[in-house]
Amino acid sequence: MVRRREVLIGPDRRLRFTMELDRGRPRFWAVQLEWYDPEEEGWVWVARYDTSGGTPHRDRNRIAAHETVDLPQDPGKAARVAETDLARRAEEYIEAYRAAKAQGKEAW
């Protein structure tokens, strides 16, 4: 079973949550910060925490893939820590994305 939800955290930013459950236990999770890019006329992902590859990590679009992060072992707690970080530091992550885009760094 896959659970998904989106939460607006501003007029041009949102968090997207995905959690895949296997027999009631989290198998995969992701928390992603998205920003409405007026130049692209659509939503782009800016930063995300996920467990693809089996290890929790953070990816930053145009900046870094698979950054090592210190998260709780419990998937639910780890996802909440990721959510808090993305919401609190949204402006920082968006500005870094915009700067990398302005420098011509490719999106993934």
Automatic annotation (TrEMBL):
Pfam families: DUF7718. InterPro entries: DUF7718. Keywords: Plasmid. Residues 9-101 form the DUF7718 domain. This is DUF7718 domain-containing protein.
